[in-house]
Design brief:
Pfam families: Phage_integrase. It comes from Halorubrum vacuolatum. This protein is mainly α. Helix content is 51%, strand content 4%. A 3-stranded antiparallel beta sheet has the order 1-2-3. The chain has a 3-stranded antiparallel beta sheet with strand order 4-5-6, with no helix packed on it. The longest helix has 22 residues. The radius of gyration is 33 Å and the shape is extended.
Length: 469
């Protein structure tokens, strides 16, 4: 064994996961590294990679090997196969495998990082091909590049509404006969509360009737309002919520990134759902001794992969398309940021997203919703059709009149206008004007009422007025 080979060590984490197989993997990676620094750049011309570059490839393969053992449960834990590679890159691209380091834990990998994972796998399989253990050179099925990749899908308003509706009806109680006597006693309290009946009268049929929970509804609506990243869902604790002010405080040390802003507001619906869930969770046995707001069915904090699966499952049940779209947990945050930016001020979205800089919000979330764009396009087509049919029609003049008009109504019902004479002046949408008011029988009074109706100078309105009429 050369000095270079002996310096190559798999990580202690991978070694612990492999157990007795660690030595075999260690030798395999030593051979891979030696190949890279002798001919790995161009095997046909025996051109070598630099040791630093080879070391980077090896570090990523070590990490990907750990991903295989964690997420794929392989038959042979000592190798990464081409099928493993395809599955890993798909999971990474769908944010079901996320960043592991503390500062960005739970964040989706950037496009550049995804590309580097794919390149490391390609180099690994290139080595296996030249060593004769593979019959073809593997290539990634996903084309990663240095440019900005596909961002999380942003829901339309209709899709978001369907998603909220589905989350409100989602969730169920444990099976009646699968619970212990102690747990059944606690859940009887939940059933009694939901149905408004005495706890000692609860039966198995009542369980079926009360088979809903605020768990998922509170999780989805609060995550949307607060823009919670997966790691923030996992870290969320009961004291973060203030029901009096309907706010959620995400301490920066528990956020996915260091943020100067920690406090965000919740909508009435999200606050109500969260308050009801916090009441309900008191009766759940798995929350005994835990301050976490949400735990998964196994009593553990949520991970990014399970949250992505949950949001896609809700979409499928709600009839929201997921195929061909990058529907991930971050879709909720992305949708909220776009909607608040469009409906309100940029500063409001900046605060709710907890961004430090307005430029970040402007760059990533200043996008017009598709429904609004569709309505604008429909309006341009209407004007185009009318322009083709009527040569006298000026679409720009129509816009000006619409902007200048203070009263917009397609109805022919009269609009009441107050005046200093105390009477009622009714003006229909037609050119005619009807006045129902008593005025002194003088020329001055007639001039005054004319000014009330037509403006200070009747001649500016394009019509003449004779006070003696």
């Amino acid at each position: 064994m050369t000095e270079t080979e002996s310096a190559i060590e798999i990580t202690e984490e991978l070694r612990g996961m492999l157990g007795d197989d660690a030595l075999a993997v260690q030798k395999q990676y030593e051979a891979f590294y030696q190949w890279m620094i002798t001919e790995g750049k161009n095997p046909r011309r025996a051109q070598a990679l630099g040791e630093s570059t080879a070391g980077n490839y090896l570090d990523r393969i070590d990490q990907l090997h750990r991903f295989v053992l964690t997420y794929l449960d392989p038959d042979d834990p000592t190798v990464i196969t081409d099928d493993h590679a395809d599955e890993l890159l798909w999971l990474i691209d769908r944010a079901e495998i996320t960043q592991q380091n503390r500062s960005n834990k739970g964040e989706e990998y950037g496009e550049n990082s995804k590309r580097k994972f794919a390149n490391a796998l390609q180099k690994y399989f290139q080595w296996q091909y030249h060593e004769g253990s593979m019959e073809y050179v593997w290539e990634s099925k996903i084309d990663f590049s240095d440019v900005q990749g596909e961002s999380a899908y942003r829901f339309t308003y209709r899709e978001l509404g369907l998603l909220f509706d589905e989350s409100a009806s989602h969730g169920s109680l444990p099976a009646y006969y699968e619970t212990s006597i102690e747990e059944r006693e606690k859940i009887n309290g939940i059933v009694a509360q939901r149905l408004g009946i005495p706890k000692d009268e609860v039966t198995r049929s009542d369980w079926q009737q009360a088979d809903w929970s605020r768990h998922v509804h509170s999780l989805v609506t609060v995550a949307y309002d607060a823009g919670l990243a997966p790691i923030e869902v996992a870290n969320a604790e009961v004291p973060w919520y203030d029901p009096q002010t309907k706010t959620l405080t995400i301490p920066t040390e528990y956020a996915c990134k260091e943020r100067d802003k920690e406090r965000v507001g919740l909508s009435d619906e999200a606050a109500e759902a969260l308050s009801e869930w916090l009441q309900e969770r008191r009766h759940r046995e798995k929350y005994d001794g835990s301050n976490k707001i949400w735990l998964n069915r196994n009593g553990n904090p949520y991970q990014s992969g399970s949250l992505c699966n949950l949001i896609r499952k809700l979409c499928e049940k709600a009839g929201v398309k997921t195929e061909g779209r990058k529907v991930v947990w971050y879709s909720l945050r992305q949708t909220m940021g776009r909607n608040v930016t469009d409906e309100g001020e940029l500063s409001e979205a900046n605060d709710q997203l907890r961004h430090s800089r307005l430029a970040t919000t402007q760059e990533n979330y200043n996008q017009t919703p598709t429904e609004k764009l569709r309505a604008r396009l429909n309006e341009t087509r209407r004007k185009a059709r009318r322009s083709a049919e009527d040569h006298e029609y000026n679409p720009y003049e129509e816009s000006t009149r619409s902007n200048d008009s203070q009263v917009t109504s397609s109805s022919s019902q009269p609009v009441s206008v107050s005046n200093r004479f105390g009477g009622a002046v009714s003006q229909a949408t037609q050119p005619s004007i009807h006045i129902d008011v008593e005025i002194p029988d003088t020329t001055e009074a007639r001039v005054d009422i004319a000014k009330e109706i037509l403006g200070d100078d009747p001649t500016e309105q394009g019509r003449s007025f004779n006070p003696s009429d």
